[in-house]
């Protein structure tokens, strides 16, 4: 069975989605806006809601990227839903492992076993400068800290036995030998423990990661229980998928470690209607600012480009001296989609280098199935371009097709995120 | 009007409450247990729910003091209630100000302006050793850090203008001049800002503090918007009250700064029924352990003491060489209440040095009114000995008497905690 998570972000993953008359920008600070979408996703039997995070408000004028904080948001969503998982991004660079372990253990109790942890190491100096650092620690240093951080969090979750509380009113409230210190004294952290929260219902909330760099892939292979990926097309997805699965195996692990690439979808009852939905959002992009941004990506002045003409020829990747990753994505979009300038701006504005599928429910289900059956994905992290209309389009029209084909659950068979993902509950170590 | 907060802790403030057949120890990890009590408190029109916090699980065998984490718990409670305030304890010693500002701002949006912050500096080495310190920073150092921490949090809350988002789909999402960095570069913190969360509905969540030491009282006088106090009896309450009010005035402030002493109540339809409720809990105390604990407090072996005899004579305070504060409380309880050994153990097991009132609803209301009208209290922080029976006793029987006397609201007149407490919304500074 496929796994499907819903990645909620601002007014949608298309940066111009908030400008649409149907957007709910008046409700961005209203928790009921998020609750409505979580209930919709639960109606579609999705595995989980996923929230990203960052520790610095940048480009606040551009879009409603910043508002509520994820752990509080997901706690509220846990009370508006009953079965769907709740995945929270928490940075190992800016929290102490004790706070992280405690917040997630508490959410796992409140949600009765539906918590996931997307561990990130963060990237930007602007984030570091909100938490006492002059600049971001180096990449290798962040990953070394992350691995120690994960170890400490897992040990804190295991500091209470599952059956620590005998619930005998005449004896001890907790069995004396059932709660232990961890006495961690490492390179980055000093943590005596035990945690202030009994062992989470899932044992450990499910550990997600999105490793792209070599350090990230190695950490994912050793530690992650499920993985987010960025894949522009099936060959890229297959390359990542087979690399990670091989590394997981080399690490001596036998658990499934589902891999979920990001997926942007525009769904219509006809191809034309789907394309119209995409065009409607693309046309909301303020073209002057978008061309300025594109100029930074491709290293030349784009301000005079005709929005409705094909993209002018660009220099080959090997001659480009700026950041290569994003430039490679631009070249690939041009090569495979032959877009107009406006279409290119729209593609970059919605999910960037992630896969985009546009079409009828059947044609999108075809392509998802193709990825799923051909070693590209164990499921997808859905990145709806416009909230909540794109969520409804997917849940109401694509999910039923996947269900008819036996690719996706019709009912929840488990009560925990770990159950939805087919992951075993870890014994206390 | 009086202010009343409900301080929820474990199975109640009496350490033996969990042993009572009516306790809900089976539900300590179930958020609905806390939701039920929050709804009960809201039915009684209380100002707020208050949660304490600590960063180390000590004496886990004794009582269910440790379970859910407060910010996640209060977020869940915000979705089960509509008007009651939600006060979260957050330590300035163990969080970064950015995390603290962000979590509380998010809860203030989710709860639509019902958040309070009880700022503490924490006390125990065991807490420090969960967050990277070898031992707890010195008292003066903690208070210096706390004051800088509060400054940074307030400035982060003010980093967005109230009207930053014009909600105009054709312009900028946020007015460019409406969000600013704070560029704090102080003794303890480097924080550039701005916050990732728009300005909270209350401007600033309400700042509570419980200063007892001289540094604590000074910080409270300069910064706190409402204050928790520990007062064993009215003279002690009056001394604290007049000292703090004088310090607030000396700091040039004119806002009301309500002072709320802790209050343990045993309510019965007769004096005898109230005393029976107290006795029922006291008799659940494991006497051997309680006598051992008492031995530590009074510096002598109490193991042979007769539980139902009067407390043997103790040495005067000036001759005692151990911690004087708690010893003074013990002497005072003996002097004023002439308790048996069991009664003394019971008093120490429920709220310790806090005021305890036992009796009918009318007689408890009399004493609360007496404190309120005689410069002892602007209200109380209710510390029910047994959950949730003591909460029901107070809400159903004492609150109506206070309402009849015009001492307590019959309906909420405001939607925010700031409104309930009669505090103005701070303009952005």
TrEMBL record, chains A, B:
<dbReference type="InterPro" id="IPR011251">
    <property type="entry name" value="Luciferase-like_dom"/>
</dbReference>
<dbReference type="InterPro" id="IPR036661">
    <property type="entry name" value="Luciferase-like_sf"/>
</dbReference>
<comment type="similarity">
    <text>Belongs to the NtaA/SnaA/DszA monooxygenase family.</text>
</comment>
<protein>
    <submittedName>
        <fullName>FMN-dependent oxidoreductase (Nitrilotriacetate monooxygenase family)</fullName>
    </submittedName>
</protein>
<keyword id="KW-0285">Flavoprotein</keyword>
<feature type="domain" description="Luciferase-like">
    <location>
        <begin position="23"/>
        <end position="378"/>
    </location>
</feature>
<feature type="binding site">
    <location>
        <position position="213"/>
    </location>
    <ligand>
        <name>FMN</name>
    </ligand>
</feature>
<feature type="binding site">
    <location>
        <position position="143"/>
    </location>
    <ligand>
        <name>FMN</name>
    </ligand>
</feature>
<dbReference type="InterPro" id="IPR051260">
    <property type="entry name" value="Diverse_substr_monoxygenases"/>
</dbReference>
<keyword id="KW-0503">Monooxygenase</keyword>
<feature type="binding site">
    <location>
        <position position="53"/>
    </location>
    <ligand>
        <name>FMN</name>
    </ligand>
</feature>
<feature type="binding site">
    <location>
        <position position="89"/>
    </location>
    <ligand>
        <name>FMN</name>
    </ligand>
</feature>
<keyword id="KW-0560">Oxidoreductase</keyword>
<dbReference type="InterPro" id="IPR016215">
    <property type="entry name" value="NTA_MOA"/>
</dbReference>
<dbReference type="GO" id="GO:0016705">
    <property type="term" value="F:oxidoreductase activity, acting on paired donors, with incorporation or reduction of molecular oxygen"/>
</dbReference>
<dbReference type="Pfam" id="PF00296">
    <property type="entry name" value="Bac_luciferase"/>
</dbReference>
<keyword id="KW-0288">FMN</keyword>
<feature type="binding site">
    <location>
        <position position="139"/>
    </location>
    <ligand>
        <name>FMN</name>
    </ligand>
</feature>
<dbReference type="GO" id="GO:0004497">
    <property type="term" value="F:monooxygenase activity"/>
</dbReference>
């Amino acid at each position: 069975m496929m796994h499907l998570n819903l990645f909620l972000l601002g007014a949608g993953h298309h940066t111009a989605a908030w400008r649409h008359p149907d957007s709910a920008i008046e409700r961005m600070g209203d928790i009921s806006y998020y609750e409505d979408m979580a209930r919709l996703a639960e109606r579609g039997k999705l595995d989980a809601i996923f929230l990203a995070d960052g520790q610095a408000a940048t480009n606040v004028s551009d879009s409603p990227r910043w508002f509520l904080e994820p752990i509080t948001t997901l706690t509220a969503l846990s009370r508006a839903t009953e079965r769907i998982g709740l995945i929270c991004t928490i940075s190992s660079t800016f929290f102490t492992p004790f706070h992280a372990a405690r917040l997630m253990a508490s959410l796992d109790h409140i949600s009765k076993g539906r918590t996931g942890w997307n561990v990130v190491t963060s990237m930007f100096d602007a984030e570091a400068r909100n938490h006492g650092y002059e600049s971001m620690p180096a990449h290798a240093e962040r990953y070394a800290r992350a691995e120690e951080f994960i170890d400490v969090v897992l040990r804190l979750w295991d500091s209470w036995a599952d059956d620590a509380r005998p619930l005998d009113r005449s004896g001890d409230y907790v069995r004396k030998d059932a709660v232990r210190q961890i006495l961690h004294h490492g390179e980055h952290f000093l943590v005596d423990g035990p945690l202030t929260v009994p062992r989470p219902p899932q044992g450990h909330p499910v550990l997600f990661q999105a490793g792209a760099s070599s350090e990230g892939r190695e950490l994912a292979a050793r530690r992650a229980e499920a993985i987010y990926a960025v894949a522009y097309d099936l060959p890229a997805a297959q390359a990542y998928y087979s690399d990670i699965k091989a590394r997981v195996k080399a690490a001596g692990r036998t658990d499934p470690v589902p891999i979920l690439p990001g997926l942007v979808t525009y769904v219509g009852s006809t191809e034309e209607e789907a394309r119209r939905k995409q065009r409607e959002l693309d046309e909301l992009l303020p073209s002057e600012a978008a061309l300025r941004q594109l100029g930074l990506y491709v290293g030349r002045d784009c301000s005079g480009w005709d929005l409705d003409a094909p993209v002018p020829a660009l220099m080959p990747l090997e001659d480009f001296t700026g950041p290569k990753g994003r430039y490679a994505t631009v070249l690939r979009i041009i090569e495979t989609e032959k877009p107009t300038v406006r279409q290119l701006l729209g593609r970059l504005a919605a999910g960037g280098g992630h896969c985009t599928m546009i079409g009828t429910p059947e044609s999108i289900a075809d392509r998802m199935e193709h990825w799923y059956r051909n070693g590209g994905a164990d499921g997808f992290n859905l990145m709806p371009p416009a909230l909540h209309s794109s969520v409804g389009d997917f849940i109401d029209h694509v999910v039923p097709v996947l269900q008819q084909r036996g690719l996706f659950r019709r009912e929840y068979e488990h009560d925990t995120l770990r159950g939805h993902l087919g992951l075993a509950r870890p014994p206390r170590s």
